[in-house]
Amino acid sequence: MRSATGLFAVALFTMATFGSAQAGPWYAKGDHVDAGAGVWNSSAANEMFDDGTSGDAVSGDGIHTRDVVVDQAVGRHEFKVALDDWSVAYPGTNQWVHINTAGETITMTLDTNFYADDWIPNENIVWNSNAMPPGSTPEVIGAAPEIGAWTSGVPGTLSGSVWSVSVNVATPGLYEYKWRANGNWDDFAFGLDGASSAGGNLGFETTSPDEPIRFELDVATGRARVVYEGTVSVESDTWSGVKALYR
């Protein structure tokens, strides 16, 4: 059985369970904003909402959002989304946020929904609108020679909000990979825990020689997946499909 996300996780169907995590309030705590409370503290400036205000798009959809007006220096910063007492925090390691201009507004989100699909992460997804420096090109890098054998990445191509890389993997097997940006690990890193400064590798499995694989990173949602392009679905109204229904 192959895996399209983690090494041993397989999605069977697509479903979203809304608001599966604690209701909050959640805070985007980090060294990107002080607002008089001190960095890495809760404040009125970094409290997140799911009520259609403060940058939140849809009330009650399980996605907690805040348009944070940053007050720290231009450069790379770190944050987590956490409860006020830090008893729960996401992601497992800090997520990077890049301040590009003084006082700019950065949108930060925590998606608490559970998704039974083939995208990773599938719940408690932290994302921000400045996860990479402006003009960045994400790339896939991993163990397979076709994606650099962990020495050089393959740059993606953008379509809509999705960056993608397509390769044919010569040798069947289990492989690990990550996304990064601009040929380095300092601008952006994306693995099993989503966009975070450290964390486990994503994984995939090929089962035939020269199998076509497409890696995707959705920068609108902060999620990634592997698509097995050689897999062809059979329509039930074809003769082969009809026979398959009655085996």
Q: Your description of this structure?
A:
This protein has 247 residues and is mostly beta strands. The protein has 2 domains: 19-112, Immunoglobulins (Immunoglobulin-like, Sandwich), CATH 2.60.40.10; 138-228, Immunoglobulin-like, CATH 2.60.40.10. It is built from 1 helix and 18 strands. It has one helix at 239-245, and strands spanning 16-17, 26-30, 63-69, 75-83, 89-99, 105-111, 114-115, 125-128, 138-142, 154-155, 157-159, 162-169, 173-181, 184-191, 194-195, 202-206, 211-218, 223-228. The strands form 5 sheets. Strands 9, 10, 13, 14, 15 and 16 form a 6-stranded antiparallel β-sheet that branches. It is elongated. It starts with 15 loop residues before the first strand and ends with a helix. 38% of the residues are buried.
Keywords:
mainly beta, single chain, Immunoglobulin-like, six-stranded antiparallel beta sheet, 42% strand, 247 residues
Tell me the layout of helices and strands.
Layout: E1 16-17, E2 26-30, E3 63-69, E4 75-83, E5 89-99, E6 105-111, E7 114-115, E8 125-128, E9 138-142, E10 154-155, E11 157-159, E12 162-169, E13 173-181, E14 184-191, E15 194-195, E16 202-206, E17 211-218, E18 223-228, H1 239-245
